[in-house]
Design goal:
Elements (H helix, E strand, L loop, with lengths): L1 H4 L10 E2 L13 E3 L6 E3 L5 E2 L2 H9 L3 H12 L4
Antiparallel strand pairs: 1-2, 2-3, 3-4
Length: 79
Amino acid sequence: MSERIARTVEISPADVGPCPFHEGYRAGGRFRVNVNTGAFRCRACGAYGGGILAFLMDRDRQVFPEVLARLARDWGVQP
């Protein structure tokens, strides 16, 4: 999970980085990713979720089937 998020958000070795969900997110490292549970949370704006699908749905404003299809393409899985 943190590898996928790190493609769009600069995550530190402590799994903390800027939040991609609110204005001014580059200013602070309030966004945390828990690699054990797959959860993410921003202490500044309150964004949270439980996995890569929730992260991508929120960040890209897409619905579940769209995100799932994109991940399948990225990973080379045929529908």
